[in-house]
Amino acid sequence: MIQTDILIVGAGPVGLFTVFEAGLLKLKCHIVDSLGQPGGQLTEIYPKKPIYDIPGYPSILAGDLIDNLMVQIEPFKPGFTLGERAEKLERTGDKMYKVTTSKGTEILAPVVVIAGGLGSFEPRKPPIANIADYEDHGVDYIIRDPDKYKGKHVVIAGGGDSALDWSIMLSSVADRVTLVHRRTSFRGALDSVEKVMDLATHGKIDLITNAQVSGLSGGGRLETVDIEEDGKGVYRLDTDYFLPLFGLAPKLGPIGDWGLEIEDNAIRVNTLDYSTNLPGVYAIGDINTYPGKLKLILCGFHEGTLMVQSAFKYIYPDQKLSFKYTTVVGVTGFE
Q1: In this structure, is residue 334 part of a structural domain?
Q2: The whole model's pTM is what?
Q3: What are phi and psi of 123, to 5 degrees?
Q4: Cα–Cα distance between 61 and 46 in angstroms, integer?
Q5: Could you tell me which residues come within 8 angstroms of residue 77 by beta carbon, excluding any fewer than 6 positions away?
Q6: Are 171 and 252 in a shared domain?
Q7: Of 224, 244, 264, which residue constitutes the final position of a domain?
Q8: DSSP at 56
Q9: Are strands 2-3 and 96-101 parallel, antiparallel or unpaired?
Q10: Per residue in 275-312, pLDDT tens?
């Protein structure tokens, strides 16, 4: 049986940073994650994708951000239970919960923090009849190593941030990038849209709008895609890889059965401290929802910072919380 002050469900960037903020208040943390290593989506899905909205870093690779966070929290010695999913939440007494994992590990804590990102997830697949035949043989839903596409012809489908960002990045890696989108307008960030348009203008990306990929063919692995374009009918395009980047379909999994208030597949929280309807249970990061919610890592850091202040008061209602700046307490010992 493991016992800690704060049990964090989710080892993504928000969960990791929460360890740091809790450590400043002398609160011990233990993290549970279904993945086999810390980092969440940043490690599992796009470790070499650059992130541009982390303060102090004009650009940082997702994997490097996780590495830095692990160094930052190392002084506080958090515990990790990795490769196990948090399955069951039970109230075992006054101000105490027991969480049981998919492998039977039991963890006791007065405070449980759900920082599970999007929850469990699976890629949204386009309705192409034989697409499963080419999965891992030319069709990829997740890009883990951009160098895999070096010197190749890549066809990307999608109109959101993922499709735009990878089109931009792979334009300097692949021999040829073709971006296919069903509309002329995009759902991604304006800056990314402008970059894609500029690359298309200068011939660095082939942009096909009002179109969709409707068929795949090849002998054993992908060789061509069929493009169905408004006004031009269907034509065939040679390619080495087809990347349908339509995002991920999130699922709460067992957390959805914990008695939490759920809205649009997310956990409703009080923005005062990101508490849920269950006392001592909080939700931070992409997995929560409230008016004005923005699903940004930066916002998750903010939510985790406020949450630990509330968690301290919940665990130790009779103790006075003395907040100190890290410039005052130091950056190594945190005494």
Answers
A1: no
A2: 0.71
A3: -70, 145
A4: 9
A5: none
A6: no
A7: 244
A8: T
A9: unpaired
A10: 999 999 999 999 999 999 999 999 999 999 999 999 99
